Amino acid sequence: MSEATDTDSHDKTLLNAAVATESSEQQHNALTHIDQYGKAAMVDVSDKHASTREAWAIGRISMQAITLAEVVNNGNKKGDVLATARIAGIMAAKKCSDLIPLCHPLMLSKVAVDFTVDTDNSSILVKSYCKLKGQTGVEMEALTAASVALLTIYDMCKAADMGMTIEQVCLQEKLGGKRGHFIRDKNKTSNQ
Hints:
CATH architecture of the largest domain: 2-Layer Sandwich
CATH topology of the largest domain: Alpha-Beta Plaits
Shape: elongated
CATH superfamily of the largest domain: Molybdopterin cofactor biosynthesis C (MoaC) domain
Largest sheet: 5 strands, antiparallel
CATH class of the largest domain: Alpha Beta
Strand order of the largest sheet: 2-3-1-4-5
Number of helices: 5
């Protein structure tokens, strides 16, 4: 048996297993970015009705107290850390489809990135918000905005504190679309 035939046989076996698994699960649990052959595919949203979609994401970066003081007092040699991180997060949301292959390019109507400084825990909470009226949600854009804002804070502060930790990046809430309203259950997540 040739190598190509072995690969084709293996692919068919995987596809059959995937089809069997999908048919045994509820439809709402199906992966939407997999086509009928088990290959990655962009979802066709052309038949969906346009509606208002909103999403909020959060993430946290922990650092040494002295590093946090430099951020808060605008003492970082690279410049205003939070202003730079805010712009980076907004830009990232607008470029989400360039970063994540199967995301749709979206005409965002609003992107916001805000920060809460937590001196007790020597950390910064990043909160992002994205909104549009369209045929697909903005969860990935909100998550991308929060993630890139966090990475920007790390980049601007790494000379002083390479031990910073980025954690707890998650979708906090989303509104609109077929799946409706989602709010993260605070009882099932840590430190939120």
